[in-house]
Amino acid sequence: MNFVYQSPQNPNSHLTVKERNQASFPVRFLLQTNLIYGRVLDFGCGLGTDVEYLRNQGFEVTGYDPYYFPEIPQGKFDTILCLYVLNVLLPEEQAHVLMAISELLQPDGRAYFAVRRDIQKNGFRFHVKRGVNVYQCNVRLPYRSILLTKNAEIYEYRHYNRLPHSNPHNCPFCAPEEERELLTESASAYAILDKFPVSPGHALIIPKQHLASYFDLSFHTKTALWLMTDRVKELVSEKYHPDGFNIGINIGTSAGQTIPHVHVHLIPRYAGDVENPRGGVRGVIPEKKDYL
To answer: N or C: which end of the chain has fewer CB within 10 A?
Structure first.
């Protein structure tokens, strides 16, 4: 499993790593507030200074960095740290990191994201010490902020279905059931298995914003949905090994929509699951399915 997508437009993000001889400020803050517990993962650990420090404090810690410590972490973690990583990644790369962390986190776990608040300008800049262009940007997350200073902010992330939600629309997707397993999650979307699957592995990719029509979503949210659809396809393929897929969105009651909250159906298909699969999604109007 490849947890991190690296854009060819941003090949030098690993060169922004800083050499330190002490624990980072976020780690010291999280320790002082007793927020680090259980099995710990430092995601994007750089040279591993925080990993070594936490191990010396008696914690069971795994360090992962796609460049410096590329061994894929195994199992689930109670606490995940992602410190000053997102600021040096392009938006698509950030989305992949958020999804990876959601997949590695225990259902009742906590992840902590530290981001810089002293960046004056988004974009590429010349790194004098490294002699290359590197990317930096401000990042704001829709998670609970637990610390804000002039230089940094720390967010706490919990799985979407473990959070309290106001649900004025009485919508099952605005307040997903706690016992439902999240396949993956990003800042603006999440994915679960369908409660009434058409086939094994039938998954739903759902934006967190409550809107009935796909066409009312912002470009940003649409992009997040399709990035997540690609990721869910990988997860479903690893577990169920289908022979094909149908992808669909019901928009409006005439098209069969029953829940007025946008969701993408990713339906695995298997050889022999129907007598004649020819026409695929054209089968929504049966007499139009066979067009030759």
So the answer is: C
My answer on whether 65 and 149 are in the same domain is yes
Inter-CA distances, 160 with 64, 184, 229, Å: 24, 10, 18
Question: Is there a domain that residue 171 lies in?
Answer: no
Residue written as token pair 């979503």: 217
Rounded mean pLDDT of the chain?
95
- Catalytic annotation present for 220: no
The CA-based angle 94-99-101, given to 5 degrees, is 95
Rounded to the nearest angstrom, the gap between the alpha carbon of residue 132 and the centroid of all alpha carbons in its chain is 29
pLDDT of residue 287: 85
Which structural domain, as residue segments, surrounds residue 217?
Answer: 182-276
Contact assessment for residue 22 and residue 53, using Cβ atoms and an 8 Å cutoff: yes
Q: Which of 96, 159, 263, 265 is catalytic?
A: 263
If asked whether residues 26 and 142 sit together in one domain, one would say yes
112-147 exposure pattern, b = at least 16 Cβ within 10 A, e = fewer: bbbbbeeeeeeeeeeeeeeeeebbbbebebebeeeb
Q: Residue 102 and residue 186: Cα distance in Å, rounded?
A: 8
CB 141 within 8 A of CB 94: no
Residue 288 forms part of a structural domain: no
Number of domains in the chain: 2
CATH number of the structural domain spanning residue 215: 3.30.428.10
User: pTM score, two decimals?
Assistant: 0.95
pLDDT per position as a tens digit, 73-89: 999 999 999 999 999 99
Mean per-residue pLDDT for 22-34?
97
